[in-house]
């Protein structure tokens, strides 16, 4: 285990199901270990998503995920944005500005690498147009961000 590892708390017995789901959609991902309770359910699950190590715990219903912690997915293009969005977005009312929540309530930011160009470019007027377009979106659409940035 690395020195610092994000630790995700799930309601019992959801951790192993969530981990298996995440590992199935991200390349270069795997379950590293599962520590089981006497009843056979997972207690903790160590896993990697795209080479980054995490730990999941079946801790019970006391704590819930909030937007204060999110998983940031840096996407190469619109196809990747669409792919991850279709897999991870399970709570439509939680969708906003490229953020979605999975069925366990974990927040994900599904972000095209081009976003910074359209909301933080050198021209503040264009960047503001890009920012305003982003704020109106649920899933981010690269072509629409570009149009807004370009003033089209």
Structurally, how many domains make up the residues?
A: 2
By CATH, the topology of the largest domain is 2,3-Dihydroxybiphenyl 1,2-Dioxygenase, domain 1
Portion of residues in beta strands equals 25-35%
Instruction: Give a quick account of the main beta sheet: strands, pairing sense, barrel closure.
Output: 4 strands, mixed
Q: Which series of helices and strands comes N to C?
A: EHEEEEHEEHHH
Question: Which stretches of 5+ consecutive residues score pLDDT under 50?
Answer: none
* Strand order across the largest sheet: 1-4-3-2
Helix proportion: 25-40%
- Number-wise, the strands total 7
The number of helices is 5
Q: What is the CATH class of the largest domain? A: Alpha Beta
CATH architecture of the largest domain: Roll
Structural class comes to alpha/beta
* CATH level-4 homologous superfamily of the largest domain: 2,3-Dihydroxybiphenyl 1,2-Dioxygenase, domain 1
For the termini, the CA-CA separation is 49 Å
* Shape label: elongated
Average predicted local confidence, pLDDT: 96
Output the radius of gyration: 18 Å
